[in-house]
Amino acid sequence: MNTAFERPDPAPTPDRPLTENAIRGIFERERVRAQALFPHWEHPFAELRFNRARRSYGQAHRDGRIVLSRSFVGTTAVADLEDTIRHELAHLIAGIRYKHGPRWQHVATRLGATPRASGRSEDDVLHEKMSHARFTLIAIMENGEERTVRKVHRRSRRYTEYRLGRRGQRYHIKGDFVERFVYLDEQE
Ligand SMILES: [Zn+2]
């Protein structure tokens, strides 16, 4: 029996920020892949929607809807987007009532969702934390472009006091240097 499976190729890095159409394209590619791997879905896929949520990247619903946050639009956070899509597709396939238990984990792993933690309980906690993170860390690149880094619970001086060109560590994202960081406060 061949139990090996192939992880999907990493996404090509976009040379321009994501549009809603690009996101739909990535979603469709992931959905087709998931359908080939798992013919039976507990909640058959119905439609992809967007909302304005800033505290949650995505949700899966029992009626087969997947909702993605529009905050992906304008970013180059393709890896986060893919991870979110696979995470939510795994909920539709495994069954939402099983939450992030072994059933979901099995599916999510096969879809190539990045494990967020070593253990399953930790994953639950982390997932929950992500959904309620107050701040979004944004990198302002040398050319003025803004890139969403991740959601966090508190500001860190490591980032608030960082300026490119000062002594000390220099941050870069995929080879481009970060000029400075800002936090978007979701409660403001
Ligand atoms: Zn989840």
Tell me the series of helices and strands, N- to C-terminal.
HEEEHHHEEHEE
Q: How would you name the CATH homologous superfamily of the largest domain?
A: Metalloproteases ("zincins"), catalytic domain
Can you tell me the number of structural domains?
A: 2
User: What is the gyration radius calculated from CA atoms?
Assistant: 18 Å
Keywords for this structure?
alpha+beta; Zincin-like; disordered N terminus; about 190 residues; binds zinc ion; 4-stranded antiparallel sheet; about 20% strand; 2 domains
Describe this entry's structure for a reader:
By secondary structure, the chain is α+β, with helices and mostly antiparallel strands. It contains five helices and seven strands. It has helices at residues 20-37, 78-94, 102-111, 120-132, 157-160; strands at 47-51, 58-60, 65-69, 135-141, 146-152, 172-173, 176-185. The strands form two sheets. It has a four-stranded antiparallel beta sheet with strand order 5-4-7-6, with no helix packed on it. Strands 1-3-2 form a three-stranded mixed beta sheet, with helices on one face. Helix 1 (20-37) crosses helix 2 (78-94). The longest helix has 18 residues, at 20-37. Residues 87, 91, 100, 127 line the site of zinc ion.
